[in-house]
Amino acid sequence: MGYSYLLFGFAILCLLPQSTFCITRHYTFNIVKHNVTRLCTTKSIVSVNGRFPGPRIIAREGDRVIVKVINQVSNNISIHWHGIRQLANGWADGPAYVTQCPIQFNKSYTYNFTIIGQRGTLFWHAHISWLRATVYGPIVILPRRNESYPFKKPHKQIPIMFGEWWNVDTEAVINQALQTGGGPNVSDAYTINGLPGPLYNCSSKDTFKLKVKPGKTYMLRLINAALNDEMFFSIANHTLTIVDTDAIYTKPFNTNVVFITPGQTTNVLLKTKPHYPNATFLMAAQPYFSGLGTFDNSTVAGILEYESPLHSSPTNKTKIKLFKPTLPNMTSTSFVANFTKNFRSLANTRFPANVPQNVDKRFLFTIGLGSNPCPKNMTCQGPNGTKFSASVNNISFVLPTTALLQSHYFGQSNGIYTTDFPATPLNPFNYTGSPQPNNTFVTNATKLVVLPFNSSVEVVLQDTSILGAENHPLHLHGHNFFVVGEGFGNFDPNNDPINFNLKDPIERNTVGVPAGGWIAFRFFADNPGVWFMHCHFEVHTSWGLRMAWIVLDGSLPSQKLPPPPSDLPKC
């Protein structure tokens, strides 16, 4: 059973008094440029309302959110509401050239969406080129009024956003990489809520501080908004309890370290010490790296600071100890594998896990790196003098120059896209072993997959060792999915499904495909429209590790894609 019944039920609720349900929340996002200084370097960045990170969106489950985006910079812009289901509302999803043309200079577009069946933390970010490096902010979704959390209500709730900072313009970074065919320059620092912290040069004043009281429980809403790095996070001498991921409640479990990929969100409960500890504690994050090549191997830190007793003297303050957390090795694939297996859905009467028990459509998608030939009269810096590329089933997805959703809605696909995306690899090989194919060239095309409405879908994402195995965070727009299985090596279609968890698998919108391994997920295609699926490493998306699904209309009015809004941007 999909979400169409939920959508119909929500429509009935909206007939009830507005004070009880259906509050509309209005925001205005002015896309501007302003100067920001980090690491003793000042640069002009693109931002929302001159804030970095951008403003917080707060809503309750069931609320309607209306955001008018006004573009006042020369860059084209679009905003994606990462993880919002957008049921029968693809026009508001945001990825440029997929569900909309970008908003051009001096133009505006109003995103209008309702939050249905979700509560927790999501985030919004630019969805064109690499602009999300500075254009991002949290989405806080509270339970409906008079509804409780499935855990004790926290004393306070604080978004913790991980980001990446470059001293130079990130648009120049990716443009140079695409031109030369080599890997892009890595970031100069990681940030917590836009601040790099005391472990970087010239940054002690740019440190995020979280002040807490003894004997309280705080909810930290963790968001990985970094462009190209998965992160380990820990707070010295404190245990964290995970209760929610990607705006879905989980069975609680304790951990000293959180692993979080770009695109993922994780709500954790932090229970402070019962008495003033006469100490401060570093909260630190550093990358998990599983690929080849270079990466930013630095560490971002903030400070957890207890409010001191009212009558403490300055002398006591000088004796305060500073504790530092212990993080896993930056290449610890074993820690990542063990950590991710802890996640389970609540799967109870109040919060059921509607896992597809039977499958209508099965797909095996290889994901990984590849190459394109170097153009004549050019010297390229990719593998063996080629240009880096990335692909799904060896198809490197080419974004069109007009929006796919409009083309689909008006039946104008000719010359824009085809619907013959391969369901399995066209040339199977030993994906994670030896020998790897000598030919690493990809096929560049705009091919889509078509799904009947409400069909049950199983997708196996298989990493490959072509140009190096790597953990890839894959994000699906417009749907959540249940992670029913994962493993290392090549997926075995005869034996691996026997061990699938169809009872209480975690429900997500972004999942890390293990380096040298595979992940299997299931979902109902219950949302009509065109939906992007891509690696949330921005460099891999730029190289073509992306694809799109067409979900056809259903039979009921609520299962059909409505006409586009009158202010939908034009290409």
TrEMBL record:
Cofactor(s) listed: Cu cation
UniProt keyword list: Apoplast, Copper, Glycoprotein, Lignin degradation, Metal-binding, Oxidoreductase, Repeat, Secreted, Signal
SUPFAM superfamilies, per database record: Cupredoxins
Major localization class: secreted
Entry's EC annotation: 1.10.3.2
Organism: Solanum tuberosum (Potato)
Function: Lignin degradation and detoxification of lignin-derived products.
Name of the protein this chain belongs to: Laccase
Pfam family, one: Cu-oxidase
InterPro entries (UniProt xref): Cu-oxidase-like_N (IPR011707), Cu-oxidase_2nd (IPR001117), Cu-oxidase_C (IPR011706), Cu-oxidase_fam (IPR045087), Cu_oxidase_CS (IPR033138), Cu_oxidase_Cu_BS (IPR002355), Cupredoxin (IPR008972), CuRO_1_LCC (IPR034288)
Catalytic activity: 4 hydroquinone + O2 = 4 benzosemiquinone + 2 H2O
